Amino acid sequence: MGISDKISNKADDLAGKAKEGAGKATGDKSTENEGKIDQAKANLKDAGEKIKDAFKN
């Protein structure tokens, strides 16, 4: 996995955590759920990159 992919996935994960936290703080379930979805997407992208790396070696 390239370093840029790692950075991008981590940034997406952190943005999702921030969005989830903002949703919790304001009581906005929609924003909170969007944050959780963003985190899940980042985790899936990270897992996909790890699988690609495994097949390269």
Specify the helix fraction band.
over 70%
Span of the ends, CA to CA: 12 Å
Q: Describe the largest sheet.
A: none
C-alpha-based Rg, rounded: 14 Å
Beta strand count? 0
Which residue ranges are poorly predicted, with pLDDT under 50 across at least 5 consecutive positions? none
- Mean pLDDT across all amino acids: 92
Structural class: mainly alpha
Walk me through this protein's architecture:
The structure is a single chain. This protein has 57 residues and is mostly helical. It contains 2 helices and no strands. Helix 1 runs antiparallel to helix 2 (29-56). It is elongated and about 45 Å long. It starts with a helix and ends with a helix. The model has no long low-confidence stretch (mean pLDDT 92).
Topology:
Blueprint: H1 3-26, H2 29-56
Give a short synopsis of this structure:
By secondary structure, this protein is an all-alpha fold.
Properties at a glance:
mainly alpha, 91% helix, 57 residues, elongated, single chain
